[in-house]
Amino acid sequence: MTRQIDLEADIHRLLVEDDRIAEQGVTVHHRENVLVLDGEVESAQRRDEICRQISEHYPDLEIVCDIGLTRTQAPAEVEEIS
Amino acid sequence: MIRIAAVGDVHVDKDVEGRYRPALEQLPDQADALLIAGDLTRHGTVDEAKCFANEFGGLAVPVVTVLGNHDHQSDRQDDVTDVLTDAGIIVLEGTATVLELNGHRLGVAGTKGFGGGFAGACASNFGEREMKDFVGTTERYATALLDALRSVQCDALVALTHYSPVPDTLAGEPLEIYAFLGCYQLGQAIDDAPTALALHGHAHHGSERGRTPGGVPVRNVAHPVIKQAYNVYQLLSGTVDTKHEELVNV
């Protein structure tokens, strides 16, 4: 269990500290040999780069990528602050 | 009334240019000003700042920002600020600005802020030099925010930070990292001034709504939280609007 958590921590640091990624908003869950990534990023290139870098560093892990793209439509509602 | 559009954590680089622009072009119909709660770039480089300025500059409404921790990554925050300022974007750090909108004066006071934690789980200014430096930084940003909030005369006062002033809007983040996402001292500063609304980002997995202990509404406008280009908040709903040069409630 400890090793599993250490791996999640190592991968989380890779996601933040690798200049090609620099994502703090992606969560990492490791179950058996499957790594599940969750969160939202600003472009498809960034999502693909995350999976590419993790695959390079951890070639034996199966990656499930649930990372979505942030939406950029204009809002339809206004919130009144009181 | 005043309508404020707000978003944070847009992390602009070349691959993002053009994504926000269609929604930003609609801003004059949606809001009177755009406030951006930091993490404008990925690594805080000058090139990324230029991308941000291309995407969020030249709009038909005033744009006010603070920097986030990502904007400090390359230690070029002063150059980033210069690029944005040259593009007509207002960058606040322990400072405030007043926008005259619809005959009202909107005050915006901003700082990046810093971590430190919240009641029951906060760092103390005690012990090793490294820990005292950490909490000293927390306190310095909070004091700068309070000074900025108290420096303006306006009809509606908004606090703009990157780090969170309350734990409420961190719900959804792991409890273990709350101390790296905000600090209670920012909330104290907001409560010690006549603040109408506090906006922040940074907590991508947090939630949108909260309040300070003193009752000031807090909104986490991190882009992954609001799930659209920007949110719009309405202030001074019961007031009479006039043209810009005919200020009321001054």
From TrEMBL, chain A:
Q: Which domain of life is it from?
A: Bacteria
- This one is known as BON domain-containing protein
From TrEMBL, chain B:
A cellular component term, taken from the record's GO annotations: membrane
Keyword Secreted: yes or no?
no
* Biological process annotations from GO: lipid A biosynthetic process
Q: Which UniProt keywords apply?
A: Hydrolase, Metal-binding
Using the record's annotation, list all stretches that form the Calcineurin-like phosphoesterase domain.
2-204
Q: Name one GO molecular function term.
A: metal ion binding
Name of the protein in its database record: Predicted phosphoesterase
Organism whose genome encodes this protein: Actinoplanes regularis
